[in-house]
Amino acid sequence: MSIQWDSFTNIIDGKPRDAQNKHYGVDPSTGEQSYPVPIATQQDVDDAVESAQKAFEKYRFTPIEKRKELLQKFSEAWSKHSEEMTTLLCKETGKPRQFASWEVNAVPLFFGHHLTLDLPEERVEDDEKILTTRFTPLGVVGAICPWNFPLVLSMGKIIPALLTGNTIIVKPSPFTPYTTLKAVEIAQSIYEPGVVQAVGGDDKLGPMLTAHPGISKISFTGSIATGKKIMAACASTLKRVTLELGGNDASIILPDVDIKKTAPQVVMGAFQNSGQVCVATKRIYIHESIYAEFLAEMVAFTKTIQVGAPESGSLLGPIQNQMQYEKVKEFFDDTRKNGYKFAVGAESVAAGKGFFIQPTIIDNPPNASRIISEEPFGPIVPTQPWSDEEEVIARANNTLTGLGACVWGKDVAHAEKIAKRLEAGSVFVNSFEKPTPQAIFGGHKESGIGGEWGTDGLKAFCNPHVIHVYKS
């Protein structure tokens, strides 16, 4: 199919749809305005829901083998546009090209893994009856997607929704609308009208989706504050919700680690994607016997990290948008004002072209400091020493969130024993946080409700349906 890579529309009922009002993304590497995108209206949402409901009545009965055939065709169509999609992703996120390419090429991995999955079916029989539990699609799914990984986190909703027999309406972040709109445009060559749609817009659009009685589920990835509003809004129609929210992930460094090998990996866990990762390492606890040496290795590696525009060959790009850029700057201001020690990095963010921030480590701030207790979602991270294992586990768990965590140690069995006690949905031993479509992904406490991905994640898009057959 022929795609125009500098023109963007919503996709409703299989057709492109423009709008009178437009908004513009911003290239975070330059601060310059990007392409116009139509702002969907309530009528657009109503039309999309009507189309999705109509399509669902047919698509829900499509055998799973046929759904997989369609997903395979979608994956093949996707792969034909990887270079164009990478260039567009660089422009809307500011990611270095190698990491934008990684995100684009991770999407086929999501397709590939889901093509190996089947919906579970459970059968229980006794002398009196046979119970068969199957999982049936919910209906129309509304996917509200974030700006930090716009492709992986939108396709991570689209693919399982389609595999399980749902239709889906995708709302990309207004900060990064471009690649998601093109992904849905590609899908139109594969799916009948109404199966996969996209509506972009401003802050008024999310509430239109959460309030709409024709939508059966909202899948949201984003901030805790917005997640709470979505959950409250969905209560009036008892929509199913999956909320993947923020985190304040702890990494515990045991005294037996290989310091030179581990320290750079811990740094990458904190600063990957310029710290704009929901499961990025946000607090680093290093055993006191190796604290000084480990921190020195972290500082040395951090000094080698280049920050720059997508085509510069740098390891890190800019903060994606000005709103988040200003929020991250607050953590620098608070740290400097309170006299905490900057181990590496400037004490203030230098103004310039684009939303660039140098990676920064704060040496042993107090537990009550903002940099310890809150999530910056940017390239600034604190370290603290620890001596008592019970105490550091309690310190790691002393947060209202629980998305991810890491334990690093040469004695893997001992590290795993600690990992089992950490209150987080995904805990990594001897690796920084690397979520995978092979495992369900979700948070504990205020980091979310439910989970998606993996075999268990398919159930998030389904209703359990039990048939009780009595033998006489």
Automatic annotation (TrEMBL):
Stretch list, region Disordered: 1-35
InterPro entries in alphabetical order: Ald_DH/histidinol_DH (IPR016161), Ald_DH_C (IPR016163), Ald_DH_CS_CYS (IPR016160), Ald_DH_CS_GLU (IPR029510), Ald_DH_N (IPR016162), Aldehyde_DH_dom (IPR015590), LUC3-like (IPR044086)
Species in which this protein is naturally found: Cladosporium halotolerans
Domain Aldehyde dehydrogenase: 23-464
Molecular function GO terms recorded: aldehyde dehydrogenase (NAD+) activity
Protein name: aldehyde dehydrogenase (NAD(+))
Pfam families with a match to the protein in the record: Aldedh
Polar residues bias (residue ranges): 1-10
Family assignment from sequence similarity: Belongs to the aldehyde dehydrogenase family.
Comp. bias regions, Basic and acidic residues: 14-25
EC number(s) on file: 1.2.1.3
Entry annotated with the keyword Oxidoreductase: yes
Active site, per annotation: E244
Reactions this protein catalyses: an aldehyde + NAD(+) + H2O = a carboxylate + NADH + 2 H(+)
The keyword Oxidoreductase appears for this protein: yes
Alphabetical UniProt keywords: Oxidoreductase
